[in-house]
Amino acid sequence: DEPEPRKEKVAIVGAGLVGCLAALSFARLGYKVTLYEYRDDPRNETTVDRNLRSINLAVSDRGIRALNAVDLEMSIRVLKNILPMRGRMIHDVDGHQTSMKYGLHNEAINSIDRAYLNIELLNELDRHKNIKVNYGLKLMKMDFSGKNGNPRIYFEKTKKVANTLEENAIRTFEYNFVIGADGAYSATRFQLQKFVRMDFSQEYMDCCYIELYIPPGASKKYKFQLHPNRLHIWPRNKFMLIALPNFDGSFTSTFFGPWDLTESLDTREKVIDFFQTNFKDAVDLIGLEQVVEAFLTHPKCSLVCTSCFPYNYKGKCIIVGDAAHSMVPFYGQGMNCGFEDVRVLVELVKKHEYELESAFNEYSVTRQQDLDAIITLARNNYTEMSHNVNTTRYAVRKKMDAAMHLIFGDKWLPLYTMVSFRGDIRYSDCIKRSKVQGWLLSQLELGVYGLGAWLAFKAIRAVVRDR
Ligand code: FAD
């Protein structure tokens, strides 16, 4: 349905995944939307270096719900090329693979190329007459010196697309309100901090990541060299390799490891030795020369967690997505959470009948606990992926957790299920429920071990007595 047009104009800073969804959502509410993006239109780029630019994302229930909430048909179009991953495939050092399903009901998280998803969303923006996108403009400054305290935003024309005369020229615009979706190093957030007593924290994780690439196999009939419906993990305690499937039969693989270790692997010999020792089966798929090349030449990227509070200044500016909360990628929730931000915000704008100050204030107050919760969960999941999945205790607890879910249904949901497949449960409630369940599981575990110890004691006593 055509929305009732509204007279207020909104500027969205950043045409990444979350900025695009925010643009679609606010246009659907009837606002006139202008998006500003400092890069060039990615659809104009003639070459995309797959090895360096193709981070794969797992889209899960929260992300899909947020897309559906804007427009079901749009959501279907945008997600048409996802590959479901129904569980993890654990690769041990000898190359043995163990499959661990995510849920009892065949639930899946879905692999999609980030650049591809961004382009699909940009294509959707073009379908709306209420949305305009300006590329090559970088937010430099923001204040609230406009009419009625409206935000004024100052952009610099980025060099790449500037013509010689206008290079670096500052452009100023005034809007009724601004949504900052400009990523982890958000300039909007930085500007906002001058007007809001904002708590802010930033923490680098001692973890570096490097992209690798597993090409499709040679067979014309079946292109995948690994199970296509699994998220593959080579967990090695302090470091790990993962791989997510692509539609063309390839896999995007990522190495995660401490900085010291990663930087110490600085010669061909060291890289070969390290990979042959730890990831022999992966090397066979990637190719030895390709591993060396990737490890020595691909960018070594850092992982940063940021959090802040509040997220808004009156009804004039609000930040969403990584701009408000960047997290480590180990729960596959960064974008899903950013999409959920937009859905929650839109619901509040409707609830407050377009009175933005109340809507934005309520968003800040109610959303904080959920954002803090998912940042913590994401951080903790590194140990689960790189270490715990290797342990027997983890496997036993997983089975017990699944059994309880089978017995009690919705009343007992494993944490991963709540976070990834039940977007109707708030992140903060996922943590609360899982703490109670975890305690009960521990009691059960003690009971099982206690029973085991008691039986062992009885058996030993019987043997000793017989003597
Ligand atoms: P961004 O994607 O960073 O977009 C910000 C946009 O703003 C960019 O286009 C940028 O050019 C633009 N911009 C920046 N500054 C300015 C400025 N001053 N002026 C104008 N424009 C500006 N999430 C998941 O949900 N599932 C996953 O499986 C997953 N895996 C990940 C794996 C890795 C290795 C990493 C690093 C992240 C992963 N994430 C995942 C997280 C996900 O990529 C991010 O949460 C998501 O991209 C955030 O989107 P965003 O739009 O908020 O920010």
TrEMBL record:
Instruction: List the protein's name.
Output: Kynurenine 3-monooxygenase
The cofactors required by this protein are: FAD
Q: What is its EC number?
A: 1.14.13.9
Gene coding for it: BNA4
Q: Which UniProt keywords apply?
A: FAD, Flavoprotein, Membrane, Mitochondrion, Mitochondrion outer membrane, Monooxygenase, NADP, Oxidoreductase, Pyridine nucleotide biosynthesis
Q: Which GO terms describe its cellular component?
A: mitochondrial outer membrane
Q: Where in the cell is it found?
A: Mitochondrion outer membrane
| Pathway the protein acts in | Cofactor biosynthesis; NAD(+) biosynthesis; quinolinate from L-kynurenine: step 1/3
* Residue ranges annotated for the FAD-binding domain, each copy included: 9-346
Report the top EC class in one word.
oxidoreductase
**Care to name a GO molecular-function term for this sequence?**
kynurenine 3-monooxygenase activity
Q: What is its main location?
A: mitochondrion
Q: Which domain of life is it from?
A: Eukaryota
The UniProt similarity line reads: Belongs to the aromatic-ring hydroxylase family. KMO subfamily.
Q: Which reaction does it catalyse?
A: L-kynurenine + NADPH + O2 + H(+) = 3-hydroxy-L-kynurenine + NADP(+) + H2O
Per the entry, what this protein does is:
Catalyzes the hydroxylation of L-kynurenine (L-Kyn) to form 3-hydroxy-L-kynurenine (L-3OHKyn). Required for synthesis of quinolinic acid.
Q: Name one GO biological process term.
A: quinolinate biosynthetic process
